[in-house]
Design brief:
Elements lengths: L4 H18 L25 E15 L4 E15 L5 E7 L5 E6 L7 E2 L6 E8 L6 E9 L2 H77 L1
Antiparallel strand pairs: 1-2, 1-7, 2-3, 3-4, 5-6, 6-7
């Protein structure tokens, strides 16, 4: 019986050689059909400093259905503008990055702990997350009581600071108004005194003129 093993080995070597030849790099480079350019993505937060950044779940109160509806899970931030100093609350959904809360923190922003859940708090705000101002009632739940306290304390601190600044500006405005009023009264009195002095001076000139005329008449008669 003839031994066919060497022939099989030769066939395998030839086959592997062909395969190896097919896989050899020819050095040719294929240019991509579509050239993609890098695009700068802006979030609108470039001119703001992050004061607070915490993970949470946000809810909005539906007035018509009288129930809480989930707005999304993500990170709630307190951002302070580098120029104006205004602070806003912004929250985006974790997966879609869709804005679910966007409003300024003002003196009227008051947070209260949610009854029955010490990790949550509620507040009212004029929100702009849907592209128009709406009066909304929000509830937010954090992963821990500590995070809820941090959030509430910082919002309260910002609100109180704004209240003090507004009070100071109000006092300064009142002081300026009072000073302007005093200056106005002083100018009015000065004008009145000037108006009173003019007729008196005119009267003295007339008396002098009359006296001089009489004196001349007396001299002529003599």
């Amino acid at each position: 019986m003839a031994n066919t093993e060497p022939k099989h080995r030769e066939d395998e070597e030839e086959t592997s050689g062909v395969a190896a030849g097919d896989e050899e790099d020819t050095g040719a480079q294929i240019a991509p059909i579509i050239k993609l350019e890098e695009v700068a993505v802006t979030t609108g937060e470039e001119d703001e400093d992050v004061l607070l950044d915490l993970k949470a779940k946000l809810y909005r109160h539906d007035k018509e259905g009288n129930q809480w509806k989930e707005r999304g899970t993500g990170n709630v931030k307190l951002l302070k503008h580098k120029v104006t100093g205004k602070v806003r609350l912004v929250m985006r959904q974790a997966k879609t990055l869709k804005i679910c809360a966007n409003h300024l923190v003002v003196t009227m922003t008051k947070l209260q702990e949610h009854v029955g859940n010490d990790k949550s708090c509620v507040w009212y705000a004029s929100d702009f997350s849907d592209g128009e101002l709406k009066e909304e009632m929000f509830a937010i739940r954090f992963v821990s009581v500590e995070n809820r306290k941090k959030f509430m304390e910082m919002v309260q601190e910002i609100s109180e600071s704004l209240g003090k600044n507004e009070e100071k500006e109000s006092k300064e405005a009142a002081s300026t108004a009072g000073l302007m009023e005093k200056l106005s009264v002083s100018e009015s009195k000065k004008e009145e005194n000037t108006a009173t002095d003019v007729p008196a001076a005119t009267g003295e000139k007339e008396v002098r003129k009359e006296t001089q005329t009489k004196s001349e008449e007396s001299s002529s008669a003599a």
